[in-house]
Amino acid sequence: MYAAKLHPAKRQAGQTRSVRPVRRRISLAAWIALAPMAATVLFAYLGTMLFTARVSLSFSRSLPTNTFAGVTQYVRLFQNDRWILSLQNLVIYGACFIAACLVIGLLLAIFIDQRVVAEGALRTVFLYPYAMSFVATGLVWQWILNPELGVQAVLQQMGFEHARFDWIVTQRFAIYTLVIATVWQASGLVMALLLAGLRGIDDEIWKAARLDGIPRWRVYASIVVPMLKTSLSTAFVLLFVMVVKLYDAVVAMTQGGPGTASEVPAKFIMDYLFNRANIGLASAASIVLLATVLAILAPFFYARSRAALKGDRA
Fold it and tell me: Which of 24, 111, 216, 276 is 20 to 30 A removed from 8 (C-alpha atoms)?
């Protein structure tokens, strides 16, 4: 009775005061839930990066030391021919790998978007290689590309006696065998991302294109692909991360060889960290690799966030 006689403004104020403790409890619960992840980011990620940066400025060998060396390790790093070669290989590999994955993934996505028969089975087949580890992929393709067991041997047994496909043991082409193996593995992921984008495009666009008599390939090239920029940018970031992390496939397929022909930065770092007991140089290489990643991805994310803000204001 008394609550019913209260003035509406007083009744609303009382409800607001009762809601505030509930909101505080929800907010506190959210912060408690986020605490483990925040601690992981602060100590496991940022902490290890700062520790690596400190070690890179020392004369550390087998164990970390506090002997300050300035940029000596960085100077030694860029005087190391093996490191320079690994960077060159990474650029070649990255350009070929990302371009091939985007093109093949887009073509597969367009193919499946035609509502083909057994679409679900085809999606599974194309995406299945991505479920495999890079080690398994490397071993499989090492057998396929082996001159004595793989494609070359099969072609010669079929009567093509002069057929040669020995890239994996040829210094000039060894890095491209890594491209072949990893493109086979990662193209399905790009296909899945782009297919999701294609399925989100309004059917009215296709109806209008048919009415205007525009060829299907022209619609894809001029309208559909530009509309997939968000999916393409996501795929690019994921592929770029795979490029920087490339290690398992190298170890499984070529061990960085022949010689150092397929050396990459991650393998260089692991070799100097564990095999050559030079953690100072390995840490310097890690920091250079991290700085390179940030220098490429930071402007990318900044431009993407600016575009999103402009879209929200519009």
Answer: 24
